[in-house]
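TA notes, week 10

Several of you asked for a full example with nothing omitted. So below is the full record: structure tokens for the whole chain, then the designed sequence directly under it. When grading your own attempts, check the secondary structure regions first.
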């Protein structure tokens, strides 16, 4: 797509923008849940490893150091997950605000009631 006059950049309709926002919101939510699932899986492996080594740790320094290392990995993983989760939530909240703004604008124009953006999107997809 070029940025010359008459390009598709200049002809974005509210339905195109709304459809993109809906897709971005769904993608952001999916990413958040996938990230959470990966975090839970990684922490489950760390807990399993820790529980396996703990009974044999009786005074053995290498095993105690390994247990401490597993705990440290869990703490670091939790911090990283919090940072990435905050970032993902920020994107999700941004997309939700933008979608609500389009819906609010459609309601203010009294076009098709509260479901105006959805109906516009449906018509766009059906080619009407």
């Amino acid at each position: 797509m070029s940025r010359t006059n008459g390009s598709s950049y200049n002809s974005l309709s509210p339905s195109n923008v709304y459809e993109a926002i809906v897709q971005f919101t769904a993608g952001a939510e999916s990413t958040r849940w996938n990230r959470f699932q990966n975090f839970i899986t990684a922490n489950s492996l760390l807990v399993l490893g820790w529980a396996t080594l703990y009974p044999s740790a009786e005074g053995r320094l290498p095993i105690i150091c390994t247990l401490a290392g597993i705990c440290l990995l869990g703490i670091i993983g939790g911090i990283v997950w919090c940072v990435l989760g905050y970032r993902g939530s920020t994107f999700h909240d941004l997309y939700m605000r933008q979608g609500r703004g389009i819906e609010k604008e459609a309601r203010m124009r009294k076009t098709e009631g509260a479901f105006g953006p959805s109906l516009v999107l449906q018509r766009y997809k059906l080619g009407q």
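The longest helix spans residues 61-108. Use that as a sanity check on your answer.
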